[in-house]
Amino acid sequence: MGKAQKYVLLGDATYPLQDWILKPYQEDENLTQRQLQFNYRLRRAHSVIENAFLRLKARWQILLKCDDCSLELLPTLVLACCILHNVCEAHDNPFNEEWLEGAEPTELPKPCQPAPAAMEDNQAEQVRELMCQYFESCGEG
User: Fold this and answer.
1) 17 located within any domain
2) Using an 8 Å Cβ cutoff, are 3 and 127 in contact?
3) Which terminal residue of the chain has fewer beta carbons within 10 Å of its beta carbon, N or C?
4) Domain count, the chain
5) Under-70 pLDDT residues of the chain
6) pLDDT per position as a tens digit, 98-124
7) Which residue range is the domain that position 52 belongs to?
8) 3-state DSSP call for residue 121?
9) Quick check: 19 and 74 in contact, CB under 8 A?
10) 77 within domain boundaries
């Protein structure tokens, strides 16, 4: 993109736009085709992430009940599960679809209103615009 970028997290419309949190453009009739494409790709990426975490929690259901381990152990436990999960996925270890029944996502409360504009970072719009240009240059997909 001609400018070095750091890692970003994907958020939805309720998050403030920051240079480290990408969120979609606000959906309205004024969006350009490029902005609609950006929103579409952001949603697609977000669904891939959700599916990956769902498979991780399904395979390692201890992650669903970490309330019975010490806080000091928790980061090591999560890291170990992530590493083992990636090893299983990389080696095509069979994934039992029945595991998903125990790992269905629970609805956690989410903010209903978008973050106030005052929380948004003015520099972040430049990051989002660069990503939008990049997605446009990548073509369909």
Assistant:
1) yes
2) no
3) C
4) 1
5) 1-3, 66, 104-112, 139-141
6) 888 877 666 555 666 777 777 888 888
7) 9-106+113-138
8) coil
9) no
10) yes
Q: Are 139 and 41 in contact (CB under 8 A)?
A: no
Written as six digits, the tokens of 41 are: 């790709």
Question: Does residue 61 form part of some domain?
Answer: yes
Q: Which residues pair with 10 in a beta bridge?
A: 22
**4 is a domain residue:** no
Please give the mean pLDDT across all residues of the chain.
Answer: 83
Rounded to two decimals, what is the model's pTM? 0.68
Rounded to whole angstroms, the Cα distance separating 141 from 139 reads 7
Secondary structure (3-state) at 16: coil
SS3 of 75, please? helix
Q: In Å, what is the CA distance from 83 to each residue of 13, 59, 60, 98, 115?
A: 31, 12, 11, 22, 34
Tokens of 28: 């309205």
CA angle at 1 for the pair 33 and 15, rounded to the nearest 5° = 60
